[in-house]
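Workshop exercise sheet. Pairs work together: one partner reads the sequence aloud, the other fills in the structure field after running the prediction. Swap roles for the next sheet.
Pair: D.N. / O.F.
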Amino acid sequence: MRIGRCLHGLLTCAMMTAATNAAPLAAPSTNLELHLEANLGVVVDPATGEVSQWDDQSANGHVFTLTGTDANLPDKLASQLNGLPAIDFGGDILRNATKTLDLGNDSTVYIVLAPDALPGGSGQRFFGNWADWQYRYVSGQAAVRINNNDNILTDTTDISTSYHLLSYRYNDNVEIGVNDNPLAEVNASAQPGLLTTRSVSVGGVWIDDGGFNPNTIGGQFDGKVAEVLIYNTALGASEQQAVLEYLGAKYVAPVQPVVTPYSDNQSPTVAALYHMNGNGADASGNGFDLSATTSPFAGVNGPNGLGEAAGAFDSTSKRLVRTLSTQADVDKFNTQTFTIEAWVRNPELDGHDHVFGYRDGGDSRVSLRVGSNGQLGLAFQDATTPTSLFTLVTSTNLTWDADTWYHIAVTYEGDGAGNDSIVNFFRTALDDLTGHAQLVNTVTGVKDLAALTPGGQLQIGNVDGITQRNFGGDIDEVRYTNAALAAYEFNLALPEAVPAPAALPAGLVMLSTLALRRRR
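Structure field:
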């Protein structure tokens, strides 16, 4: 069974488990002989930052230290991989001098580390014992040396100097893996087992016989170690996966989807487009810029990718508004077929949370809003009685998670020939990576809209300056398109949400961000 082959799955698992640095998953403990974690069991001199002791987190009580040689002590680095610490070995060493590792004739080893440089020749020894076994870099490759025999090397694939996961498995064959690539499988059945009667070291190897100073050995490790796990058996497939899931949840940052702003060059025609980049400028080309008495742009973070300039619409003075004075202005908005959409979060849910629309008193209106039961709503003046009470079409009731960005949309398809129009409501959470906008429900038999009349106001975040009509939460990236978009046309997720392993850099920190894109 090859080690490291599950790392791409490990990344997916890390996204799914959403573990935090404060409470990572526990490492599988069955057959765990040694567990060193840079975030636990580290004794640090507060004045110098030097590490004098690194305690085993398994039940076996191994202690790594180096007494009386302060010049050779490593340092603790506070924030490295995914915000967690690491131990920095610059030719330094910590030695387990009191207790040997019981590995028998098989073992599985995982080491999360990052070399600062990769010299040629015999390279750098970062874990093991001088006479029995050494894990090392040789000529830029991962290697292991057993019982003073020749190095067992990987293939010609180079190791990166960024953080990565090295995996070793010994059970007749020696298997060496780097991240997702099992780089070497060398038959070692003729070799003795890995049971050692000598001390082992991290950051280098120590010669027991004669008590040589580690600086005289040469080939010490120059780099950082975040974690070491050694199991005294050759783990099977399910056991390997459990270890990789633990490491992934701990060291791989959760994926943050990235929203791409709407394109300014679009077809079909866009009547109004607001990127909300700290202002109410219209990017459609129609010049329908909006303004507010009090700016709603005050340090509100929009969805990842849209910047830090979303609008917070928690008061009437913050509504963005503009009067459309001419027939030519209102004619830019097709009321026979259209889509209104926006990114929103934290609506007040008090009955009339206005997102975007137009209203000219009781003569004409069209707007997208959120109701008291979380339902999306399309309010409009119908064509048969344009000066009477308005028509409200709503979706089914919806639950809104606090502080979660949602893409919401309403589409309207009418033919002007009767009350047979179709309304679709969509809502998609930012972390929903299914690929297309999620349909909430469809309403049929809807009345036809009346054409808009000039003299009314185009508004975001409120309507008519009435307190009860504040949206209450945050709004970003608003658009009115003169077409009823289908679910796939919103195109909310990348077709290749997670890159193939070959496209990823060699380091363990190799997550590229997922992107939410729109077609138009």
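Discussion prompt: The helical segments are 7-17, 237-251, 327-330, 487-490. What would you look at next?
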